[in-house]
Amino acid sequence: AQPHPVALALVEAARATGIPSFDNPNGRMMEAGSGASISDVRADGQRRITIFDSYLRPVLNRENLTILTGASVQRIVIENGRATGVDVLRNGEVHRFNASEQVVLSTGSINTPRILMHSGIGDERELKRLGIPVMQHLPGVGENLQDHLCFPSIFEFREEMPPRGNGSEATIYTKLRSESRSPDVVMCQGEFPICSPEIAQQGVPQHAWSLVAGLARPRSRGRIRLRSAHIQDNIILQLNSLSDAEDVKTAKAAVELSREIGAQSALSEINKREAFPGSVFVDDLESFIRQSAVPFWHQTCTAKMGRDELSVVDGKLKVYGVENLTIADGSVFPRIPTGNTMAPCVVVGERASQILRAELLGENQRTSTVGNAA
Fold this sequence. Notes:
This protein is of the alpha+beta class. It folds into 2 domains: 5-41 and 147-295, Glucose Oxidase, domain 3 (2-Layer Sandwich); 68-144 and 300-372, FAD/NAD(P)-binding domain. It has 10 helices and 19 strands. It has helices at residues 5-16, 28-32, 51-55, 108-118, 124-130, 197-200, 245-262, 278-281, 285-292, 342-361; strands at residues 35-38, 43-44, 47-48, 71-79, 82-90, 93-98, 103-105, 121-122, 136-137, 143-145, 149-157, 170-174, 185-190, 208-215, 222-225, 236-238, 271-276, 294-295, 325-327. Strands 1, 11, 12, 13, 14, 17 and 18 form a 7-stranded antiparallel beta sheet that branches. The chain has a 3-stranded antiparallel beta sheet with strand order 4-5-6. Strands 10-15-16 form a 3-stranded antiparallel beta sheet, covered by helices on one side.
């Protein structure tokens, strides 16, 4: 299907501001530091293809694969410095699954540090304060939380243009900081108004589209903490968004660029007016930024790879100080990727499969990807 008219016009409008156009958002566009293109979408006809569709659905009948639904991992069982299994809550009962070889934690950047800390892996002072027995002191667990915080500008349509297909079909990357070596702002087009609850209360037009500008290289860092030793209790999520003054400056510049793009002639036949920031916030963009901020839901980096005191895993994704425990998700990134996080997370999973296969079959065996692993 043809891209939405707004997507095509947006790429042209970005070009009018000096942002070059590319055939797709990968490779050359990322290396160029600035570019706009129609987005790539994994789809089969009218249906999006998920990672589950690609990796698990084709092998659901394997005898050595069991997928247990309605289950929640409580903690990792650690004996004498070795991960030996997991405790899982299902149907109100806790079951213990023992691991003969490896435990691989792949639960995302929110749940992975939560499970680690409930297992006694984390900052020993914090664990002792909560009454959790310390299995391994790793103060970086739950630290370094990052996300692509974004600030949608909203433009009202001259005539109604219903959303269709993917809902977002154009992508822009650009550098706004003079010292940046790669894009520090990511933008995408939404075929409908995207806004925070605070902006929604101020009257968002029903028929509108959004230019969503986000921080691709945020400097602010958050953290994840346990509320208590009780596994059922919610965690404490400290985002610390916009706590770094440079992030505020970059966010303001990103919104200003959004307004400039929205004012180009390529969009004049589509846009009736700029609804937000609009006249309400034109003289106070910082207030708009703080009221409009919403996440891209790219939370990462809470169990980072590295060699400093806040690192949680080594170059082979192994948790420091705990044998047979691997982490394979976006929490291992030292910093958030510039673009969407799905593909980098797939790469982490592929690399984990190669490492584990080599270990299980012997170092001299040829490694393989997940799709070919036995």
